[in-house]
Amino acid sequence: MANHHIPVEFNKDDDEFKCHPSQSGSTATPTLFENQNNSKVFCVQFFEDQLHQDDDEFDELNQQLNQVLLNDSFKPSLIQAFTADMSSYLSHEKLTKNSRKMQLEYQNANLREKEFVFNTYIKNDIENFSLDKYKHYVLEKIIEVGPPSHRNLILDRIYNQINKLIKDLYACKVMQKGLEIMMCYPQDSTEQLNNYLSFIHQDNIQMKKIYVDKIANQIIQKSLEILEGQNLLKLLQILSKNILNNNKDKFELSTDQYGCLIVNKIIDIYPKQFDVQTKSICNNIIVRTIENCSCLTRRQYANYIIQQILEKGQDVHKRLLMDQYLIKDFISMSMDKYGSNVAEKAIIYAGPQWRLKLWEEEVSISESSFKKLINDQYANYPIQRLFEYLEQQQRNEYLALLNKLHENNQLNNHGQIVLKYAQTNYSVKRFTQKIVQAELLKQNKNLDNNNKQLKNQKQNCNQQIPTYQMLQQQQQQQLYQQSIQQMYLQQQQQQQQYKQFDQQQYQAAVMQQMLFFQQQQQHLLAQMPQLYNQDVNCIPYPIMSQEQQMMMFRWIQQQQQLCNSNIKFQNGQQK
């Protein structure tokens, strides 16, 4: 007999790895699967390697997805702004527009986009960004609204090359913005702020070059404006050595083209100081400039410091400068090329008393001094300004002196210009005064007319009030009389009607009314069965509703009226 076919169990552990080429009669080369002891270990290791390979591929895909921001067509607006063309061949309008778009998109972007843009486009190119005319605004925006880590990295890179960048116009603006933000948030940029303060508080030749540099002195001015407390005090102490003070290097800021701007900034910040030491240092610098004003007013750049005191200085410093120095030196100062500007500003910002004193004690004290001022090529400008601000009496004296010199042919070309200016200004001022006076008279007349109208209206109202009351009383009396007459007529008509009725008609009418009221009473009592057997004189009214009580009262009143009319009718018949 043939053996029956026995099926093979493929899921059996012993035979799990027996289906391989070497045992199936194949000519293929033997594999590691022939080793039955190592087959399962190899299989596990193989699958683990495959899983690790899948993880690596997944990480690579994630990295590629992160790079999609640069490669696919759906780029965020921030990326599009930073990939815009900023080449130098573009027009100024196009470059400005691109720069503003970059700033706006950065301000509105989320933190992840800011990180990507900073790491991709800015981190390795901070120096070039700070030196660019349009891109340096992007760095300022990052310092202002970006993460503190980005701000600190930018400030560190700039500080590493501060000697080069501080003299560049655009990089200096980035440094000023950084200083503002560091002073607002010192806890976020402590190291950067300390580095900057250590640089600014140096007292050496390099810093003196920065004081007088066209661009670099702007950071000193910003420091004076922003710093506070001991940091400001230390900077003022260093600057005070170089302002109208004897020093070994003979270095002076007040007479320098750009150093004088630092002195002007000290004059500006003086009223804002509350610390006693800083205020005293600022005051000493200002007083020293006032004491040396005779020299400073005649210098090309230092005269702006005296003008700054006249325009923005405190009243104490103004009075000291004008009363003790400028009024005595007015004539010689006015005849100087640069001093004439100071003299003109003194006339503008001084009060009327100082101008009157100047006119009486310096200008009009002698005809020779007046003639000298008018005919001078520089002094004729402040003397014209003086005529403009004088009172009418002094203006008349001024014109009289001018006409006298003109009649004697003592006016040169500058004097003739002053004469024409004074005549035109005088006539214009008189004309304007007439117009102003006419307008004031019109306003006064209008006010008087308005006051008169108001008074008349008040009087009319006072007169109308009693007449109105009288009319009201008369109307009330007429209405009262008409009502009395109507009542009297109604009574007469009723009496006539009663007289016309005979006794039978009256009785019939009374019977009809009695029947009607009886029906109403029955209807009412049907609604209230509890009141049927009670006495009429002691009706419990609180038990009845309001409408039922009103119906009962009306019925009783009508019965009384009928009885009264019956009695009157019977009395009339008897008469």
Please provide a written account of the structure.
The chain is mostly helical. Among the domains are: 60-200, Leucine-rich Repeat Variant, CATH 1.25.10; 209-326; 503-529 and 539-574. Helix content is 72%, strand content 0%. It is built from 28 helices and no strands. It has helices at 39-66, 68-71, 77-82, 92-108, 111-122, 126-131, 136-145, 148-160, 162-165, 169-184, 190-200, 205-211, 217-226, 229-240, 259-269, 276-291, 293-296, 303-312, 315-326, 330-334, 339-349, 352-363, 367-374, 380-389, 392-407, 413-500, 503-527, 546-574. Helix 14 packs parallel to helix 16 (276-291), helix 16 (276-291) packs parallel to helix 19 (315-326) and helix 21 (339-349) packs parallel to helix 24 (380-389). The N and C termini lie far apart (164 Å). Residues 57-426 form the PUM-HD domain. Pumilio repeats lie at residues 121-156, 288-323, 325-360, 364-400. It comes from Paramecium sonneborni. Residues 12-31 are annotated as: Disordered. One of its GO terms (biological process) is post-transcriptional regulation of gene expression.
How do you describe this structure in short?
This protein is mainly alpha-helical and 575 residues long. The chain has helices at 39-66, 68-71, 77-82, 92-108, 111-122, 126-131, 136-145, 148-160, 162-165, 169-184, 190-200, 205-211, 217-226, 229-240, 259-269, 276-291, 293-296, 303-312, 315-326, 330-334, 339-349, 352-363, 367-374, 380-389, 392-407, 413-500, 503-527, 546-574. Helices cover 72% and strands 0% of the residues.
